[in-house]
């Protein structure tokens, strides 16, 4: 059984695939290394002597600079390695000309909507336009649970604390995301629930819903209703009646938009789970589908790889703006650009932001970048899209759903139970997590370490996604864990 992996031949470090003890001799290709100290699973081992100030190579790219001399066989981590990144940069377009593969589309059973979009669920979504009516929405949903039968697959509230006391772009973000969700094809019916005096009321949301089937939308302003819960329940019953005859029909992979996200990553995430998702992404795109990569701060250090894959110079320029605008966002708030990775990431073996980013971007596979989306913008281009959103798990996953993703694939090495408004598939980077948190994890990419091939895992993930698109429940759905988080970027009045 393999103890370590050297990802690229030029790498100066290997990654421990299981906990290893001092004095153990490990084999990295044709190189034998005796460990000078204990190495936790997912952590890095020096494969040669590294001088202080020298760039350390992993994934074939620098992941930081050695802050002290590192000897062959020593642990490489935060005590002797630091990021080499600094502020906004100038970039040069160096296209790598990636090619899309082509494969026969596959089918699943989905809900074809009047506007041509396809939902993979047929749910009623209650969307408060302002946090003041979250509890009213919950009361309506509680009384509406008896409607969940037949073609009505659920009644859900996606509450949030915003919709008022916001200004400028921050306020526009809230309005756009609520409109995006109101138009989402996973919702067979939508109740927009307003208070009546908020900045982002129903009259501000509706104009942003030009492509919505308004026969599937109801609105209620609570201040204008004598009994808002009773009136809301009546409207939800109308939506349920409209959905009674909805049926799943054959749809193909070109109808799918899948969000790509990672969180609670460890040192194996970029070796097992994220490459598995990348293999899935390439397979889906080859069959006419679309994927979305987000969490921009976790592209820092690997952004030039994505830039090189842009299909044209205009897309490249949009990617440069995506990266530098997010750096400016940090600097405008007087915060460090590279305050990453998290404590959990570090405990799992990720040392620097470059280390994290090079693993994170593995989720995008090898396909060309077709488009770059601002926050709150919806996918229009087939293939791989980049989306502006932060790394925060729920905020980024919500942004993926708002952009049109019917499913979010979420890799993790530490584990997390949450779900966003759409099915959120948890993919473990290691088998220990999959066994320990089997009530959270949907798919175990850690099997790669035990001998399952990457192609087999990517094929299996594609099969699982099609099953989920056809109605199979994810763990977050079974557990009833579904939430929404909107990106807060401005002042609160």
Can you put this structure into words, describing what you see?
There is one protein chain. The chain is of the alpha/beta class. The chain has three domains: 4-82, Archaeosine Trna-guanine Transglycosylase, Chain: A, domain 4 (Roll); 123-245, Rossmann fold (3-Layer(aba) Sandwich), CATH 3.40.50; 253-479. Helices cover 27% and strands 20% of the residues. It has a seven-stranded parallel sheet, with helices on both faces. The chain has a four-stranded antiparallel sheet with strand order 1-2-5-8, with no helix packed on it. Strands 13-12-14-15 form a four-stranded parallel sheet, sandwiched between helices. Helix 1 (134-143) links the parallel strand 12 and strand 13 (155-157). Helix 1 (134-143) crosses helix 4 and helix 5 (273-286) crosses helix 12 (454-469). The longest helix is centred in the middle third of the chain and has 20 residues, at 313-332. It is globular. The mean pLDDT is 96.
Shape descriptor: globular
Report the strand count: 23
Question: What's the helix count?
Answer: 13
Helix content: 25-40%
Strand content is 15-25%
Gap between N and C termini, in Å? 59 Å
The chain-level mean pLDDT equals: 96
Biggest β-sheet strands, sense, barrel: 7 strands, parallel
**The number of domains:** 3
Radius of gyration: 23 Å
Low-confidence segments, given as residue ranges, are none
Strands ordered across the widest β-sheet: 19-20-18-17-21-22-23
Q: Oligomeric status of the shown chains?
A: single chain
- Given helix and strand content, the structural type is alpha/beta
């Amino acid at each position: 059984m393999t103890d370590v992996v050297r990802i690229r031949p030029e790498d100066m470090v290997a990654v421990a695939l299981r906990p290893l003890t001092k004095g153990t001799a490990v084999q990295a290709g044709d190189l034998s290394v005796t460990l000078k100290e204990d190495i936790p699973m997912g952590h890095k081992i020096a494969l040669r002597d590294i001088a202080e100030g020298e760039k350390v190579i992993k994934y074939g790219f620098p992941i930081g600079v050695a802050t002290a001399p590192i000897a062959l066989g020593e642990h490489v981590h935060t005590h002797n390695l630091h990021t080499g990144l600094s502020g906004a940069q100038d970039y040069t377009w160096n296209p790598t000309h990636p090619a899309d593969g082509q494969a026969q589309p596959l089918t699943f059973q989905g809900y074809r909507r009047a506007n041509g979009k396809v939902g993979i669920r047929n749910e009623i979504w209650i969307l408060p336009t302002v946090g003041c009516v979250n509890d009213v929405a919950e009361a309506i949903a509680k009384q509406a649970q008896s409607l969940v039968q037949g073609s009505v697959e659920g009644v859900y509230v996606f509450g949030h604390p915003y919709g008022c006391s916001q200004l400028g772009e921050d306020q526009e973000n809230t309005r756009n995301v609520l409109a995006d969700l109101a138009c989402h094809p996973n919702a067979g019916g939508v109740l927009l629930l307003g208070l009546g005096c908020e900045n982002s009321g129903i009259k501000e949301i509706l104009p942003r819903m030009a492509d919505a089937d308004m026969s599937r939308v109801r609105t209620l302003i609570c201040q204008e209703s004598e009994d808002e819960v009773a009136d809301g329940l009546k409207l939800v019953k109308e939506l349920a009646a409209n959905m009674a005859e909805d049926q799943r029909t054959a749809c193909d992979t070109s109808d799918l938009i899948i969000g790509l996200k990672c969180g609670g990553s460890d040192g194996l995430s970029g070796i097992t789970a994220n490459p598995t998702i990348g293999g899935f992404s390439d397979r889906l795109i080859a069959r006419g589908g679309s994927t979305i990569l987000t969490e921009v701060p976790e592209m820092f250090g690997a952004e030039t790889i994505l830039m090189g894959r842009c299909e044209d110079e205009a897309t490249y320029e949009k990617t440069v703006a995506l990266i530098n605008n997010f750096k400016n966002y940090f600097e405008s708030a007087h915060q460090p650009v590279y305050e990453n990775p998290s404590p959990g990431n570090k405990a799992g073996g990720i040392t620097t932001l470059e280390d994290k980013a090079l693993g994170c971007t593995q989720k995008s596979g090898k396909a060309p970048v077709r488009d770059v989306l601002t926050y709150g913008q919806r996918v229009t281009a087939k293939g791989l899209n980049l989306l502006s959103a932060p790394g925060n798990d729920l905020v980024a996953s919500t942004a993926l759903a708002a952009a049109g993703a019917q499913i979010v694939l979420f890799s993790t090495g530490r584990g997390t139970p949450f779900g966003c408004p759409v099915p959120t598939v948890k993919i473990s980077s290691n088998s220990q997590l999959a066994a320990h948190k089997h009530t959270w994890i949907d798919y175990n990419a850690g099997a790669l370490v035990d001998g399952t091939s990457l192609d087999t895992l990517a094929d299996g993930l594609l099969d699982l996604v099609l099953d989920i698109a056809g109605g199979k429940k994810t763990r977050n759905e079974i557990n009833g864990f579904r939430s929404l988080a909107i990106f807060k970027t401005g002042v609160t009045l």
